Amino acid sequence: MIRRRQPHRIGLVLGGGAARGWAHIGAIRALQDAGIRPDVVCGTSIGALIGAVYANGDLDWLEEWVARLTWQTVVRLLDLRFSGGLLGGRKVIQVFADRFNGCEIRDLKMPFAAVATELDSGREIWMQDGRVVDAVRASIAIPGIFTPVLHDGAWLVDGGLANPVPVSVARGMRADCVIAIDLNNDILNGRDLGGMVADTPIPLPATEPGGDALAETSADAPPPVALRKNGKPWPRWLAPESDRATGTGDVRVSPPPSARVPSMLSSIAQSIDIMQVRITRSRLAGEPADILIQPRLGGMGIFDFHRAAPAIEEGRAAVETMMPAIKARLGME
């Protein structure tokens, strides 16, 4: 039987990191297996999305959904546009909007907060009321990638610009023991600039009329060639490379860098990674967590949403490695 020597209000902090965020699922599972349930949860970007799903009691659904994602599915969920960001985010957020079904943050099963950044002022915004899907959509608005969100008269973008691992938010929610998950610890240890991150196929391939945007294809099948409506292929900078499109490979180890000139998306992704790492280290130095969990995800790009299985496993492994420290901090026997 697990006993605590003293009561703790546990805060779970889920950091940003785009597709690397699937590691949060494995981390939460490992905590649950150890009998640890947070009292509050907060997150930035993908961490806000997963935190909201978890607070809504839908983690099983999310894990099943991401397990079915293939490269082709991810492509179909992306809606290309050139106003405010490359992606509108409408299709992917609709999947979660349908699941939340108009749920308000106050109606979630545990206290929750999402972090966004006010574009004009740079202020950090803690979103603790209103519709869950609106808070999540604002928090995931990666600058240049997803379009900003207008909220209460201000344009909001990704919370990672201000607070990638929002320990301070958990403290503000009266958590006296904060378990934080940082997804960006080793992502600058070598990068494949020509891989999926660089050349993620943003345009939507042609689909049959009335086709299901979430229709699945075999994960083992080779990725199709994305063609424009005129039958010609998209430019190379927008086309995937087969070695990363299959979703194979170790998320813990980055592939060797490519000698090719980085593409536009590669430059954006790499710049976002650098920014996230620098800001994360600065914020955590001044606002440390009681327990910091850092999965090794250097080999996973920000658009590798189809590589959920290895990311989830790495998230679980990272928590299990830290479990003795977690139990000692909580006074668990």
UniProtKB/TrEMBL annotation:
This protein's record includes keyword Lipid metabolism: yes
Single Gene Ontology BP annotation: lipid catabolic process
Region Disordered, residue ranges: 206-259
Motif GXSXG, residue numbers: 43-47
Keywords: Hydrolase, Lipid degradation, Lipid metabolism
InterPro entries cross-referenced by the UniProt entry: Acyl_Trfase/lysoPLipase (IPR016035), NTE (IPR050301), PNPLA_dom (IPR002641)
Name of the protein in question: NTE family protein
The organism of origin for this protein: Paraburkholderia saeva
